[in-house]
């Protein structure tokens, strides 16, 4: 059994809190998924000019470059771990570093265990200190130990058109399948999984998905899905047969009621959703029950200025509430400090 420790940090003069619930197992190994439980106040704002935290040196495969980055994970020490799709690798950038450090793949395109092929998402399983990667074009989910002498991964799930990954704790790995238009959850060693959402062919019904990409699972095991080609975000309350549209769902467009090809997403403790609205080059937040969202960064047409994106991909936060957005066609990751 686990004991719970709740630490409350008061950050800055604004009265806002990040509640970090650290769960420890019997061995004292930290289970840090719940680090993601940020209680971001409704009136929080972020500096509109992003600071480049990784890449930003044009498209390429040097260690200071990225080539269409997609998924993103922010570690405890503000290191960003990026799925570098076009370079078939996962690269880690410590804060202030000018170069990244390849931590998986980067050995050319292929299906060897030392290779990746167009990976789309990554997360860290703290309990086993490993990276879990959606190795998209190899149709598999792989695990790479995080040790610096690691040269290859192992296959966790095979024959799956995975795109997005999520884990609420070590018990379940959730995988979005953008060919079967469904999300399944898997226990360790389980290769078939259990259907969570979708799986009713593609479509825009409330029990359907159309090209699900990124997913997020909260503490109550509610599942949020970026339902990309339906231009909406769906929420599946644990055990529900149908989902609820919680953002978009009004066709593709750039009104505040709409999304256009949503990608990465994150839900905070009160159910506010932060989503990368990729074709609108913006990140939005949608409070629970809202009929429209608000633009938190970007939304100023496509471009390479500090307040712009050219395709906003994944979004994530560090423990201090700073926002990170993958800017895929500018080959960079932007960090937006909390104001
Ligand atoms: C990064 O740089 C900032 C400003 O120069 C400094 O305050 C901070 O401590 C640095 N962080 C790390 C992790 O080196
Ligand atoms: C790998 O990690 C070990 C233990 O943390 C460290 O001593 C060693 O310097 C590292 N090697 C490289 C090449 O980073
Ligand atoms: C892989 O999955 C597809 C689609 O579900 C299925 O048709 C095929 O039989 C599977 N192949 C193997 C080798 O399991
Ligand atoms: C992880 O999730 C499972 C399934 O909901 C739950 O039974 C278990 O208590 C959770 N573990 C922790 C450490 O929260
Ligand atoms: C997984 O699915 C296959 C095909 O439906 C079935 O034969 C097999 O028994 C299942 N395995 C488990 C562990 O449920
Ligand atoms: C859902 O799909 C139906 C049938 O294709 C279409 O008529 C309808 O406009 C779609 N609804 C939305 C909100 O896109
Ligand atoms: C959009 O970007 C341009 C050029 O960087 C800038 O002049 C303008 O103020 C920006 N508009 C908004 C709403 O951020
Ligand atoms: C955005 O990226 C596309 C390639 O994906 C490129 O063709 C286009 O010129 C870029 N637009 C701007 C404004 O940088």
Automatic annotation (TrEMBL):
<keyword id="KW-0677">Repeat</keyword>
<keyword id="KW-0732">Signal</keyword>
<keyword id="KW-0325">Glycoprotein</keyword>
<dbReference type="GO" id="GO:0005576">
    <property type="term" value="C:extracellular region"/>
</dbReference>
<protein>
    <submittedName>
        <fullName>Uncharacterized protein</fullName>
    </submittedName>
</protein>
<dbReference type="InterPro" id="IPR001258">
    <property type="entry name" value="NHL_repeat"/>
</dbReference>
<dbReference type="Pfam" id="PF01436">
    <property type="entry name" value="NHL"/>
</dbReference>
<dbReference type="InterPro" id="IPR011042">
    <property type="entry name" value="6-blade_b-propeller_TolB-like"/>
</dbReference>
């Amino acid at each position: 059994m686990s004991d719970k420790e709740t630490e409350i940090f008061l950050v800055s003069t604004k009265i806002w809190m990040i509640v970090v619930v650290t769960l420890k197992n019997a061995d004292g190994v930290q289970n840090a998924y719940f680090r993601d439980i940020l209680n971001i106040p409704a009136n929080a704002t972020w500096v509109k000019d992003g600071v480049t935290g990784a890449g930003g040196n044009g498209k390429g495969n040097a260690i200071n470059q990225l080539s269409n980055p997609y998924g993103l994970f922010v570690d405890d020490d503000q290191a960003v771990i990026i799925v570098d799709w076009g370079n078939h690798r996962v690269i880690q950038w410590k804060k202030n570093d000018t170069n990244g450090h390849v931590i998986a793949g980067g050995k050319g395109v292929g299906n060897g265990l030392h290779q990746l092929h167009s990976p789309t998402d990554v997360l860290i399983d703290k309990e086993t200190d490993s990276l879990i990667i959606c190795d998209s074009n190899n149709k598999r989910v792989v695990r790479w130990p995080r040790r610096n002498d690691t040269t290859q991964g192992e296959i966790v799930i095979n024959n799956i058109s995975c795109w997005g990954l999520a884990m609420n704790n070590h018990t379940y790995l959730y995988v979005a399948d953008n060919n079967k238009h469904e999300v399944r959850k898997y226990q360790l060693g389980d290769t078939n999984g259990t259907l969570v959402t979708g799986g009713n062919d593609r479509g825009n019904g409330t029990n359907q998905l159309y090209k699900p990409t990124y997913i997020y699972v909260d503490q109550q095991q509610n599942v949020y899905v970026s339902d990309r080609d339906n231009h909406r975000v769906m929420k599946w309350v644990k055990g529900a047969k149908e989902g609820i549209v919680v953002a978009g769902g009004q066709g593709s467009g750039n009104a505040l009621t709409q999304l256009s090809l949503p990608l990465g997403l994150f839900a905070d403790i009160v159910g506010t959703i932060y989503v990368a609205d990729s074709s609108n080059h913006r990140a939005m937040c949608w409070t629970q029950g809202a009929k429209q969202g608000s633009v938190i960064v970007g939304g100023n047409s496509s471009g390479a200025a500090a307040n712009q994106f050219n395709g906003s991909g994944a979004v994530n936060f560090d423990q201090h509430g700073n926002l990170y957005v993958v800017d895929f066609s500018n080959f960079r990751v932007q960090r937006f400090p909390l104001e």
